[in-house]
Structure formats: C-alpha cells, structure tokens
Specification:
- This protein is mainly alpha-helical.
- It has two domains: about 120 residues, Photosynthetic Reaction Center, subunit C, domain 2, CATH 1.10.468.10; about 130 residues, Photosynthetic Reaction Center, subunit C, domain 2.
- Helix content is about 35%, strand content about 0%.
- A two-stranded antiparallel sheet has the order 1-2.
- Helix 4 packs antiparallel against helix 9.
- It is globular, with a radius of gyration of 24 Å.
- The protein starts with a helix and ends in a 6-residue tail after the last helix.
C-alpha cells in the first residue's frame, strides 16, 4: 500500500473510531412516557441501569428497639435536635448514622473521645445542622420528597463527605475582550453532561435566585430580556438534572414545546419544587456553615460545600430508586411525640 493511501486509511479508521466512541453499544431500551412518537420517550441503556440499581441499594436496617424508656436528654448532655427521642431510639439512630456516614472512622468522626457532649470537633457542629436540615426536608418539602423522604445515607452513601458536592467556580480571566471571562465554557465537566456549556450553573440558579426560564411564550415577543448567555446557563442546569437523574429531557418535558406546562409530565412539577428546595437548603443550611469548616473544606471562592441534584439522586430518577428508609427511621421525619413512658420520666437532677 502506498504511504499516502496508508495514511488516509489510518486517518479514516481513527475518525470512525472517534465517532463510534460517542455511541452506545446496543441493545437499547425505550419507555413511552406520554404521547406516542419521539416527543415523550425515554431511551435507556440496560447495562447502565443495571449498574445504577446495584449502586442504589439501601443498607441493612438497624434492628428496632422497644418503645418507651427515659428521654435521651435525661441521660446524655447537649442533645439539641433529637431531644424528643428515648434513650433506646436515640442510640439506635446514632448507630445508623455512624454506619451511613463514617463506618470506618466510627463515633469519633464527630465526637471528642474524652467528652461526647463537646462541640470541639467541627464535624459534630455540621452533623447537628444536617440533622436539622434532614428533618426540614422531610417535614416541609413533601412537594418534592413526598412520604419517601431522605436520610443521611441518601447523600453520604457510607462516606464522611458526600461524593457529589460543589463550590462556586472562580474562573480565570484571560486577555481577549469578550472572551476574557470564559464562564467555565469549553471545559467539559461531568456535572453538565460533558458538554462545553458553563460548568457552574449552580451559583446563579440554585444558590442565587436567578430566573431559569429563557423561552418566550409567544411568537416574536417584544420585551423579552433573556439572551444567548442566559440560555447557556439554563441548558447547563438542564443537562445537569438529566444526568443526575439518569433520564432524558422527556422525563419532564414534551419536546413539541419545552416551555408548555400543559404537555409536560407530572415529574416536571416535582422538579420545579426540587429546584426551590435545593436553593432553600443551600442558602439556609449549607452556605452559612463556611465559618465552621477548616481551610481544606473551603472552596477557592471561600465558600462552603453545597448540594445539587446529583448529591441525592446519584444517577437514579428517584434516590435509591424510591426505597424509603424513612419508614425505618421516622425520627428523621420531624419531632417525634414522646411515648407515655418517656413523657412521664422526671428530668434528671
């Protein structure tokens, strides 16, 4: 074979390999979620779904304890959140949380060895706030989590620090007029589906309250202030949500008209509340923890770690594919009404 021809063939093979690398090996599967046609169909890779199912199994339940008994506050000091639980249920929940968050490190990941009541370890201060946040989610955001709820395991999955957190990106200014600030573009990130869209849509859209809608509702409208840059932020967030849940855009939208609510699925409403829930949690619980964290837990912009859709969903359309751990740990759903035995226990002297 002539050298030039050999070179052309080699280039052709490499080009074909690069093109096919972006495709998925069949067979694929699809689920019709709305009107017939391509407007509302979900395409799945059974191999990927199988891996996601295996990675989203809930852990074994800590055996239940008998009801009643003295309140935890009569035995333990400095109990500020779970002060409505009996000693037995309090201890059971602490064992479960240790298994969910720090199975290798144990109790001393949050507690001082010489004084369990001490707040000297910063992780205990953070954990207390996270317990308050978990109860807040399960009590006040049923519009998103329904009765399935969440637990510490939903995000942590056996790790002290959840795998999917984010910080505000500081970016790098460059010479070049309009291109001086890249806004995180052209640096494909997993958080936005490996696209070249802005890699940090979170600061604007799920920390701040910037408007997500960019589409106009009428033809050739006058007065719509949204521009291409706004659209790129919105698309980046949508790509993030799609990847986080392991679904197509059609899980929530009818591609006939993305902005039209009448043709959308009920899941779009659930997602609408989810965006607002995440904003609430980031603003009220996570971002204010910045002064508590040591320097190695703080981002380049000086901010604390925050959550997004992937933090809980981790590739599943419902966290843990809808398995409700809250039924086994109802204390995380909100304050528990003391049993008669616990309520009648006199306070410690």
């Amino acid at each position: 074979m002539r050298p030039r021809l050999r070179t052309m063939v080699t280039c052709g093979v490499l080009a074909a390999a690069a093109l096919l690398a972006g495709c998925e090996r069949p067979p694929m599967d699809s689920v019709q979620r709305g009107y017939r046609g391509l407007g509302m169909v979900e395409v799945y890779n059974p191999r990927l779904v199988s891996a996601q199912v295996a990675a989203n199994q809930p852990p074994e339940v800590v055996p239940a304890v008998p009801e009643g008994g003295p309140l935890a506050t009569t035995v333990f000091k400095n109990v500020q959140v779970l002060n409505d639980l009996s000693v037995g249920e309090f201890t059971r929940l602490m064992v479960a949380i240790t298994n969910w968050v720090a199975p290798k490190e144990g109790c001393l990941y949050c507690h001082a060895a010489d004084d369990l009541a001490s707040d000297a370890v910063y992780t205990k201060v953070v954990a207390r706030r996270m317990l308050q946040m978990t109860r807040h989610i399960n009590s006040d955001w049923k519009t998103h989590v329904a009765d399935t709820g969440v637990t510490c395991y939903t995000c942590h999955r056996g790790e002290p620090v959840p795998a999917n957190l984010w910080y505000t990106e500081t970016g790098t200014l460059r010479a070049g007029g309009m291109s001086a600030g890249s806004q995180g573009q052209n640096h494909p990130g997993l958080q936005v589906g490996l696209t070249s869209l802005p890699s940090d849509p979170f600061t604007r859209l799920i920390l701040r309250n910037d408007e997500i809608r960019v589409a106009s509702t009428t033809a050739l409208p006058a007065g719509n202030p949204r521009n291409i840059k706004d659209t790129e932020w919105t698309y980046a967030l949508m790509m993030h949500m799609s990847k986080s849940l392991g679904v197509n855009c059609t899980y929530c939208h009818n591609t006939r008209s993305f902005f039209d609510w009448d043709g959308s699925t009920p899941q779009r409403g659930t997602a609408w509340y989810g965006i607002r829930m995440v904003r609430d949690l980031n603003v009220a619980y996570l971002d204010p923890l910045g002064p508590v964290y040591p320097p190695d837990r703080i981002g380049a912009a000086g901010d604390s770690p925050k959550l997004n859709c992937t933090t809980c969903h981790q590739g599943a359309y419902k966290p843990l594919f809808g398995a409700s751990m809250l039924t086994d740990y109802p204390a995380l759903g909100g304050p528990v009404k003391p049993t008669a035995a616990a309520a009648d226990t006199p306070p410690a002297k």
